[in-house]
């Protein structure tokens, strides 16, 4: 069939969310589709940045039994890993539903899922993988005209922004050279640069920091690692706990944030008094989190961001036991030092290193001399601040607006992007992290796989609706 007669869908970003949306479109569509998956980094097609890891020590933060990419086949990933991988001590002592397997394996799995979906798709469909960057997306002819960095142009009936996460936009101080201060912990040169140091500073104390710590230890780093975090919270450890706590469908009906936090604490206390584990309650909340988030007022959501989020994330996003063992051992022997403080400035010294100023509330500033600094403070929440050509153009033309809490983009419940006048687009959608302000729980596979299937259904319904009008 001629491509010009097919319905055109462009998905910007070919990580987990974009690729799985394409997979579900291919599985479900009856009308002929021409799908373009656009990914600027060739080796991230199918897996994105998160699952492009190459170090075996970088493990998933969710057990293998919960990591199927396909909602209707819960053991799909576990079966794949059992058939295609082998135990590799000490990082992978077993391949089981409860095991935390390497992210590199998961990336291979996702690539295969996408490749198989393309290979087995009915002949009426066409899929094109485009290694390029979309820089302009202009509404036109009941769809969008698209332009890329390399100068390609085409029209799409529907577009999906599957953008994933972006590194934080932290302005560098003039005195701090970029070769000693890194904003993106995943940049290819960062680990190699740290391995050449005797002392380094990681700003932030979440899971990304632990990724760097274990990579350094796995590569026989003998220097001292300093970690600076305003609250000094480090990731909690996964532990097996048997059955999930029981939360009925209408559970946790706090009328405001304070009441909700109080009720969660009370349920955890009751559960633990009965011999349970707090992790069981936190995990049982997962299917309810979007409803709970949306029930909060805007002021309560902002209060959550300021005061509750660090503690919620600390309990919600946990690390595998073998990672925690390495981290705790390094804390005990002094090769890791955690500072409960903010980094207020940094400047290059005469030896080519950097002096960071650590500030804890109510205490004198502490200068800390290190060789390198890496910011591990999580993704940039405010997409309007990014120096990304496509987002800059979409904001400038009023095609999108920020979510009211400044986290991600404004959308409706189905992922349609809301423009500057408050109208939901019938042709421009998003999925994953850009929807965090609307759903909150929208960055991990158990939620994203359901989102991808639902978005594919929404896109097909929209195409059928517009076809019926012509």
Automatic annotation (TrEMBL):
Pfam families linked to this entry: NAD_binding_9
Domain FAD-dependent urate hydroxylase HpyO/Asp monooxygenase CreE-like FAD/NAD(P)-binding: 11-165
Taxonomic path: Bacteria, Pseudomonadati, Pseudomonadota, Betaproteobacteria, Burkholderiales
Protein name: FAD-dependent urate hydroxylase HpyO/Asp monooxygenase CreE-like FAD/NAD(P)-binding domain-containing protein
Signal peptide location: none
Protein origin, superkingdom: Bacteria
